[in-house]
Amino acid sequence: MKNLTFILFLILSNSLFSVSREDKIVYAFRDTGNGSYSKMVVIGETVSIDKASMIDDNNKIDKDLMQIGVDLRPDMLTVKVLHNPGIRVGQTLYLIEKNPDHISYKDGNVVGQIKVVSIFNTSFFGQQLRGEGYLRLIDNKVMTVAMPIESESLEDAIVLKKQGDYFVAKGDIANAISYYKKSIKMDKNYPESHYALAKIHTTSGEGSVSAGYEFKIAWNNRDKFLDLHEKHQFYLDYMKYLLNRFETEAYKNTNLTTDLDTSLEVSKEALKMSPSNFDSLYSVSYSYFLYFLKMRDSQPKIDSDEKMAEEKAMIRKKTEDNLNKAQVSLEKALKIRHQDYKIQTLALLLYFEKLRDLPNRESLSQVTERNELKSKIEFHAKQYLIYKPKSKKIDKRIKDILEVSKTL
User: Fold this and answer.
1) Which of 113, 217, 229, 242 fits as disulfide partner to 259, beta carbons 3.0 to 4.6 Å?
2) What number of other Cβ atoms are within 10 A of residue 224's Cβ?
3) How do strand 126-133 and strand 92-96 relate by DSSP bridges?
4) Interacting residues of 295 by C-beta distance below 8 A, sequence separation 6+
5) Long-range contacts, stretch 111-114, CB < 8 angstroms, 24+ apart
6) How would you class 191 by CB atoms within 10 Å of its CB: exposed for 0-12, middle for 13-18, buried for 19 or more?
């Protein structure tokens, strides 16, 4: 009987003191004149406002204004996070009026906005975040901080995506796809679910078109990733997919470089998150190398007139620039993981193209460069044979390179 009474007390107390999702909803008015509002969810309240410690030294206008008494430094706001429905670094949050009793929230005017700079956990005060913004009109009273509701079912979408992950781990792909699609139905812009579907399509043979569609939606909504590790892995997988699709499909069309353009953009975003990531550096190098091949093969064969000769010279310069950019990233990647046979393959292909591109009439410096390139080709050929998996046959391109390079 006592146990039953205790259980009933727990249930009752939970219903009395828990806060529902609806209790966290506020209607924020941006313009009181026309009555339009945004539906937002409360995530916390302000703790302190400080001035940023420094300003961009490269911005001369800012420094000039500082000298005449105009302070353009942004304000740094600390926020106590009371509810986290999926806050992300780089996201915009809004400051809204709060009731004086500091307990209940009211619909009110938006009085400021901040960009989330960092989210962190503290030992005594729980989760907090730091935001940057210009908050001249905000005094030191406590403000409600809220985020726009892009989807009222975001939390449901997250749960359904996790269920899909569970079925992937069990090997039940059909159920995984079902849950990922349910997640997307809850929030069509939630990128993790689109990324998860893309991975299934690339590994289960369901087609490149479906994978590309899901990858593209996830890329367009990349700023909404909740997990930074998953976001970085998405970049890596999307790069591989784009390069593979270009090799197998787009390379047939001499004018189509969309996949290469996107691959470079994705690679650069990945390098911002992890500057020394091998896969990102490899993708950058390989993308520029494919650009080189594309431009080299599309050059006009005959200089029919002066204008054509100028155009060919311009294309040749761009082609050489792409090869040089590929070499810069290649050498960085080699320092990180030279044991990867793919990077050894790319090194052989790239240095061979540089060797083949040298003019027949040579200066002493060109002779030296030729000998250095031959030495590099010989070195990387040995490295290739060392690190090539035994199950793989020697790449025919490598055989040809080793034969032809002897005659150059």
Assistant:
1) 242
2) 20
3) unpaired
4) 315, 318, 319, 322
5) 111/137, 111/138, 111/143, 112/137, 112/138, 112/143, 114/77, 114/79, 114/145
6) buried
| CB proximity list for 94: less than 8 A, separation 6 or greater | 28, 38, 40, 110, 112, 113, 145, 146, 147, 148
Whether the Cβ atoms of residue 280 and residue 239 lie closer than 8 Å to each other: yes
Q: What is the pLDDT of residues 168-211, one digit of tens each?
A: 999 999 999 999 999 999 888 889 999 999 999 987 655 678 89
Residues belonging to the chain: 408
Query: At the top level of CATH, which class does the domain 156-405 belong to?
Result: mainly alpha
Domains of the chain, residue spans = 18-149, 156-405
Give 121's strand partners. 127
Burial code of 267-280, b = ≥16 C-beta within 10 A, e = fewer?
bebbbeeeeebbbb
Burial tier of 347 (Cβ tally within 10 Å: 0-12, 13-18, 19+): buried
376 within 8 A of 347, measured Cβ to Cβ? yes
Question: For the whole model, what pTM was predicted?
Answer: 0.66
The per-residue pLDDT for range 340-376, each reduced to its tens digit, is: 989 999 999 999 998 888 776 667 777 888 889 889 9
| Contact in structure between 48 and 131 (CB atoms under 8 Å) | no
Tokens of 50: 């400080």
In Å, what is the CA distance from 132 to each residue of 16, 52, 56, 323? 37, 8, 14, 41
Q: What Cα–Cα distance (Å) separates residue 168 from each residue in 180, 186, 194?
A: 10, 20, 14
The residue with greater pLDDT, 256 or 73, is 73
Name beta bridge partners: 51.
Answer: 75
Token pair of 115 as six digits: 């960009």
Q: Which two tokens stand for residue 276?
A: 């020394």
Whole-angstrom CA distances from 234 to 15, 141, 222, 269 are 40, 41, 9, 11
Inform me whether the pLDDT recorded for 8 exceeds 60. Answer: no
Residues 6+ apart with CB under 8 A from 398: 345, 348, 381, 384
Cross-strand partners of 44: 81, 145
